[in-house]
Design a protein that fits this description.
The chain has a domain of 165 residues: Rossmann fold. It has 340 residues and is α/β, with parallel strands linked by helices. The N and C termini lie far apart (42 Å). Bound molecules: 2-amino-3-ketobutyric acid. 2-amino-3-ketobutyric acid binds next to loops.
């Protein structure tokens, strides 16, 4: 990856923090932005940090002043919060994405070359109509069940289409390479499991919350049924997927949005892994009807054949490695919890 200034939006979020660490380790200067201040240690890893609302034109003026040659657009309101605050979700996830695509196009024209724009999308773009269909469907392909039931899923799906539109429309207007355009690509992520940070406002959060609570000796009430099954991925794999896709040859990318998978787990299976690592863990199940309804429409697993074929995707962390190497070691260290 060349050492061009790389814009990371949503820099204070959990994916943002891990991605910035990885970019900084590679010596890539990061222009970070978020509405919340960055943790000071993370801010020191960045070339520049600009605070602001991604839907605010003033922030975009500042981003253009600094300049950038690559984009990871991570800023988003996640599913559970978006259901509570749909207007906010629309402003951040739709208007923010639209504005950033415009800004990136202006930047690409100024540079006279294409800018790659990576957009983390989600399994929330899928909407399985019933539990029976969810069990029957098992691994869902990119073009199936695209009828999300949440505002978050709808805004992510629209973000993918906006990106595709920008990539195609301006490419048609400016067929000469020196004119600049956007190379857009979306990754549909499953629930993410990080040892270092906790997500905020998502519906797959019961996975990470369960293990972080156990490591701190706190009881955890899981808000979905034990048999609830969705795909999950370890955070280092999510970061690696973003970096791999950034480096893929444009001609290899046959899709504008790719599934990436690692393993599929029920909430009961997560609880079993957590109890294995922390035998004292106190986990109970008290489903919340609204959040349960959301995950019941998300697929059990995803078919990521296209990502494997087109840009060599494969997860490094399966279920065992995720829990017994990555999470066990790092979470114990983080909370100084004893090895049983
Ligand atoms: C959420 O739960 O909203 C996210 C997601 C699956 O995109 N973690």
């Amino acid at each position: 990856m060349n050492s061009a200034i790389t814009l990371v939006t949503g820099a204070s979020g959990e994916l943002g923090q891990s991605l910035i660490e990885a970019l900084a380790e590679r010596g890539i200067p990061v222009l970070a932005t978020d509405i919340r201040p960055l943790p000071p240690a993370l801010s020191r890893r960045c070339y520049r940090a600009v605070l602001g609302d991604i839907s605010d034109p003033e922030l975009h003026t500042q981003l253009l002043q600094v300049g950038f040659e690559r984009v990871f657009h991570l800023a988003a309101i996640l599913s559970s919060q978006a259901e509570r605050e749909p207007e906010l979700a629309h402003r951040v996830n739709v208007e923010g994405t639209f504005r950033l695509l415009q800004t990136t196009y202006r930047m690409a024209k100024r540079l006279g070359k294409p800018i790659r724009f990576l957009f983390p999308s989600s399994i929330a773009v899928y909407g399985l109509p019933s539990l029976e269909e969810k069990r029957r469907a098992r691994k869902v392909r990119e073009d199936q069940y695209l009828t999300p039931m949440t505002i978050y899923g709808a805004t992510k799906l629209y973000g993918e289409l906006l990106g595709l539109y920008y990539a195609r429309f301006y490419r048609r207007l400016a067929p000469e390479p020196e004119a600049g355009w956007i190379e857009f690509c979306a990754l549909r992520f499953p629930g993410l499991l990080s040892a270092f940070t906790l997500p905020q406002g998502g519906t797959s959060d019961y996975g990470p919350e369960m293990i972080h609570a156990a490591a701190q000796g706190k009881p955890y009430r899981c808000f979905v049924r034990p048999d609830t099954r969705i795909p999950f991925m370890a955070m280092p794999d999510a970061v690696r997927a973003l970096l791999l896709l950034t480096e893929a040859e444009p001609s290899a990318l046959r899709r504008h949005a790719y599934n990436v998978g690692a393993f599929s787990l029920s909430a009961e299976e997560i609880a079993a892994e957590v109890r294995h690592l922390f035998p004292e863990a106190q986990i109970s199940f008290e489903p919340d009807l609204q959040r349960q309804a959301i995950v019941d429409t998300w697929p059990e697993d995803v078919d990521d054949t296209a990502a494997r074929q087109d840009w060599g995707w494969h997860p490094d962390y399966d279920r065992h490695r995720t829990f017994h190497e990555y999470l066990a070691v790092n979470i114990r260290r983080r909370y100084r919890s004893p090895v049983p």
